Amino acid sequence: MATQSDLAETSRIEAFSDGVFAIAITLLVLELHIPELEEGERLWPALVREWPQFGAYLTSFAILGIMWINHHSMFRQIQRADRGLMFLNLLLLLWTALLPFPTNLFAEYLRDDTINAHVAAAVYSTNLTLAAIAFSLIWWHVLRRHLVDHDLTPSQQRSSILRYSVGTAFYAACIGLSFISAPVTLLVQFLLALYYGFEQLRTRA
Question: Measuring CA to CA, which residue among 71, 146, 131 is closest to residue 100?
Fold first, then answer.
């Protein structure tokens, strides 16, 4: 049974993580700028021209929002914390805090017809792949160390990890897709965010 200090420790981890997610989401909107109008140009066409910035912002906001929701869902089940969990959570927050940079990079080069657009998309996809791997490692660790509030058989554990981690393979595939089409990569990343919007972890009754 979890002690009060164990519960306090997991609460501190989640509170610290919430702060990082909040800052990362806030930094995303700071990269949205008022478009500069050409002489005689109306505002609406200028706003439409900025679609890469809005598309990248919306996608990254959805990804961070779903990550925060699933992180909360995960920690509702984690009853004890150890150093391994804290380090793996820091690994996840490393890629979370970094996301505004590749988001801005992706938006800046999304319409570029050169290799720059593909490289920017690949950097963005790599960031999300590493975040997905960190998420999976946390879930694998808490099951292996019995830090959750329910017991699963080895078969159920493997099934749970596989079901939760399946999106990681798609994120990794997006790195290759980045060198085919940057806009399609952005669309697939948004669809993956919707996929992760569905509960992937067993929750408490």
Answer: 131
Over residues 86-126, the pLDDT tens digits come to: 999 999 999 999 999 999 999 999 888 789 999 999 999 99
CA–CA distances in Å: residue 78 to residues 22, 73, 144? 21, 9, 12
pLDDT band, residue 204 (cuts 50/70/90) = very low
The model's pTM is: 0.85
- State the DSSP string of 6-55: HHHHHHHHHHHHHHHHHHHHHHHHTT--PPPPPTT--HHHHHHHTHHHHH
pLDDT of residue 20: 97
Question: Would you say 204 and 148 are in contact if contact means Cβ atoms under 8 Å apart?
Answer: no
The separation between the first and the last C-alpha atoms of the chain, rounded to the nearest angstrom, is 17
Q: Which residues of 94-111 are buried (b: 16+ CB within 10 A; e: fewer)?
A: ebbeebbebbbbbbbbbe
